[in-house]
Write a structure and sequence with these properties.
The chain is mainly β. It contains no helices and ten strands. Strands 1, 2, 4, 5 and 8 form a five-stranded antiparallel β-sheet that branches. It is elongated and about 40 Å long. The model has no long low-confidence stretch (mean pLDDT 91).
Length: 100
């Protein structure tokens, strides 16, 4: 499972990992988001998850700097839809393929 990270100028680093990268239309997917700052877990960080152009919601990381976010895949076939997490100027992206 691919995991991608990006660092912002404020020192916050995000990583996103999907439990599956290929699903059928409307199947559930879980994104695990990890937020760190200065190499340490960042608790209580607000993170926003987007799938394609749809915002799934905003969540808070727990004491370990993690947030597990479940969502339904798009209800149509699409290759490499972007799953993006954003927080405080930082972002991370993973790809999801939806096929029958």
């Amino acid at each position: 499972v691919k995991e991608k990270t990006s660092t912002s100028t404020v020192g916050l680093t995000l990583a996103i990992k999907l439990d599956r990268t290929k699903v059928r239309p409307s199947e559930s997917v879980v994104a695990e988001v990890t937020a760190t700052e200065g190499g340490k877990p960042k608790a209580d960080a607000n993170v926003t998850l987007q799938v394609g152009v749809i915002t799934i919601g905003t969540y808070r990381t727990d004491s370990t700097g993690k947030a597990r976010i479940g969502f339904a895949a798009p209800n149509h076939e699409v290759e490499n839809v972007s799953v993006v997490v954003l927080s405080g100027g930082a972002s991370a992206t993973a790809s999801l393929t939806v096929a029958k």
